[in-house]
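Lab notebook: predicted structure, single chain.

Context: the supervisor wants predicted structures on file for every construct in the current expression panel, including those that have not yet been purified. This is the next one on the list. No modifications to the sequence; it matches the entry in the shared construct table.
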Amino acid sequence: MGEQAAVFPPCGITPMQQILASGTGALLTSLFVTPLDVVKIRLQSQTTPFYQGKCILYCNGLMDHLYVCQNDVRCAPWYSRPTHFSGTLDAFVKITRHEGVRSLWSGLPPTLVMAVPATVIYFTCYDQLRHFLHYRMGYQGTFVPLAAGALARLGAVTVISPLELARTKMQSRQLSYQELRVCISSAVAQDGWVSLWRGWGPTILRDVPFSAVYWFIYELVKAQFCKGQQVSEPTFAMSFTAGAISGAVAAVMTLPFDVVKTRRQIQLGEMEMLADRAHRPGGPSSAKKPSSTLHIMRKICAESGCRGLFVGFLPRLIKVAPACAIMISTYEFGKTFFERLNRERLLQRM
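Prediction complete. Output recorded below exactly as produced.
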């Protein structure tokens, strides 16, 4: 039994199995939620079209992506198609009929490139930290999911931020990998290594509190469901419901940080365009530095009052709650599958 304890952690599955379970969850979540955001962006483009020098902020509930318009052209073809929609359902029908079903997943590639590895790191780190704090350190109670969720998200955002910055640079300027390396090297030489984590602060302000609240409520609701049904492990329906509830509450509580982060991302995207134009003859020599998080919050309150910090309440709720529900229920199902598989293998060896 000592050898088996070394092979399998207290949660019953290996880190590689956790990676497979979380990766599957991220993939399924992206497939289900991406059409919602594609439709939302297409509807928004009818009233507030973005031309050259502007950005599209795309978020499917797992991760944010910034589309920066290309040089001398408008934004991505799937975004700027001229079809007129009268509402969400009409958009789904017309996009499917005139552009094909595949158009509903136009924003999927960057999601798979960025969101899947970020989610894998995040969920695997959370489980490893939770079991470390519980079994190795002996901590009990609600502190464990709160601390593990916050630390896991901090680590995931820190690892992914340079990759997201590189992706945005490549997409905005059509850089080759060699040109990207030179561009990043120049940025590091000018502003230091910290330049690779530009925009990290606003992301942390939103994502770390969201993660702490999310896991705290999820573990609490899940435990209540298991206690009510007198089972030791949650069913798929229990995980799905608990994920939706915890995602909704966390989304509402951290909405002001999301509003600030959205403005900051758009600002950073426009900086990329200005930096790109600086390479052209007669272009501007430098881009204006982005405003601080506190400055953006003060500006929003001055323009729209405190209510301005809660703009987009319903769209964020509709997007984040199902994304969290699909992700966590798939992840829990995957963990349960691997736990049973490991038990069966252990019994066969005995």
